[in-house]
């Protein structure tokens, strides 16, 4: 097995374009699964919250339960089957409930072959599905070209998959689930014990500094305005990049995310897609900025320092 891995790595180094193509195809396939995660994980979380609330009320406030009635307390919060997770049930059209054929689930090509419509009832299928598959493929192909067949590429790919899922969920639900942010935070600290991207010391300081920097801004803003400017998930996501890249990359990540967020927010207000005062998810901008710092952060810092 070791000899096979060594031979494969050597071949990929000799023919980098082959490695990039293989990475794109593999990542687009993973992108198809990420679509499932983006859609189903929030539903699973809401059901868990409902279950916890019901248990709390039944355990500590039976008088409230009597007033509400068990039939209302246990009323389903969504239209999906009782057994609902990342695997079950299989993919189906939300309107006619017909199962999606395996060949129609092929990344990008399946959506194109259907011309963006259900094969049975012709209901439109959101273009977001192939977009996420294509985006995931492009991001991983970029990592393959940049890092080559290395452990840096492997770990960066895992981080990228999680970032794509977090971005989609935050755009839909204004939510960055701990189920995704915390494991990837700990993974960043563990892999940097061997200095994959930065030293263990810089990773630990980076994780703490990433969290506390936005935490401080959050409380300062709340004390001044009485409003919450961001969620705790944003703190954890910035801590992720501190753990992966070290504290030195945090200023660049914060700057890039703030600039992109400000530009997008202004454009949405101008085009009347966002009213002033309405919240917008900040997680996607942190994710994009952190990913740029992962790939080109050192080059950007070197360029900036050379201009001083």
UniProtKB/TrEMBL annotation:
* Localization per Swiss-Prot or TrEMBL: Cell inner membrane; Cell membrane
* Positions of transmembrane segments: 14-38, 153-171, 180-197, 203-225, 237-270, 282-305
Q: Which UniProt keywords apply?
A: Cell inner membrane, Cell membrane, Hydrolase, Membrane, Methyltransferase, Multifunctional enzyme, Protease, Transferase, Transmembrane, Transmembrane helix
Domain Prepilin type IV endopeptidase peptidase residues, every copy:
158-266
- Determine if Transmembrane is one of this entry's keywords: yes
Superkingdom assignment: Bacteria
Looking at the keywords, is Mitochondrion present?
no
**Domain named Prepilin peptidase A24 N-terminal: residues:** 25-147
Q: What is its EC number?
A: 2.1.1.-, 3.4.23.43
Q: Which Pfam families match?
A: A24_N_bact, Peptidase_A24
Quickly give the catalysed reaction: Typically cleaves a -Gly-|-Phe- bond to release an N-terminal, basic peptide of 5-8 residues from type IV prepilin, and then N-methylates the new N-terminal amino group, the methyl donor being S-adenosyl-L-methionine
Q: Give the membrane topology.
A: Multi-pass membrane protein
Where is this protein chiefly located? membrane
Database matches in InterPro entries: Peptidase_A24A_bac (IPR014032), Prepilin_IV_endopep_pep (IPR000045), Prepilin_pept_A24_N (IPR010627), Prepilin_peptidase/N-MTase (IPR050882)
Role noted for this protein = Plays an essential role in type IV pili and type II pseudopili formation by proteolytically removing the leader sequence from substrate proteins and subsequently monomethylating the alpha-amino group of the newly exposed N-terminal phenylalanine.
* Protein family according to the UniProt entry: Belongs to the peptidase A24 family.
Write the protein's name: Prepilin leader peptidase/N-methyltransferase
Q: Which organism is it from?
A: Shewanella saliphila
């Amino acid at each position: 097995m070791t000899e096979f891995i060594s031979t494969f790595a050597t071949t990929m180094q000799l023919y980098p374009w082959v490695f990039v193509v293989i990475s794109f195809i593999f990542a687009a396939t993973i992108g198809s699964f990420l679509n499932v995660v983006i859609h189903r994980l929030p539903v699973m979380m809401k059901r868990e919250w409902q279950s916890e609330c019901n248990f709390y009320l039944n355990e500590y406030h039976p008088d409230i339960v009597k007033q509400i009635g068990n039939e209302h307390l246990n009323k389903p919060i969504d239209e999906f089957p009782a057994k609902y997770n990342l695997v079950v049930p299989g993919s189906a059209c939300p309107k006619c409930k017909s199962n999606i054929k395996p060949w129609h689930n092929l990344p990008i090509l399946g959506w194109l072959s259907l011309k963006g419509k259900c094969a049975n009832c012709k209901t439109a299928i959101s273009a977001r599905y192939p977009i996420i598959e294509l985006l995931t493929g492009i991001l991983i192909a970029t990592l393959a070209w940049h890092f080559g067949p290395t452990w840096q590429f492997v770990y960066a790919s895992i981080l990228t998959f999680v970032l794509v899922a977090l971005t989609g969920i935050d755009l839909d639900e204004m939510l960055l689930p701990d189920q995704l942010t915390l494991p990837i935070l700990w993974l960043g600290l563990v892999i940097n014990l061997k200095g994959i991207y930065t030293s263990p010391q810089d990773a630990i300081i980076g994780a703490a500094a990433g969290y506390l920097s936005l935490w401080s801004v959050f409380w300062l803003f709340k004390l001044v305005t009485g409003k919450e400017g961001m969620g705790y998930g944003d703190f954890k996501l910035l801590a992720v990049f501190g753990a992966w890249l070290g504290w030195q990359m945090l200023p660049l990540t914060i700057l890039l995310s703030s600039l992109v967020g400000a530009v997008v927010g202004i454009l949405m207000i101008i085009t009347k897609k966002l009213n002033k005062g309405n919240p917008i998810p900040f997680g996607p901008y942190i994710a994009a900025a952190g990913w740029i710092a992962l790939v080109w952060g050192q080059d950007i810092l070197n360029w900036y320092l050379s201009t001083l």
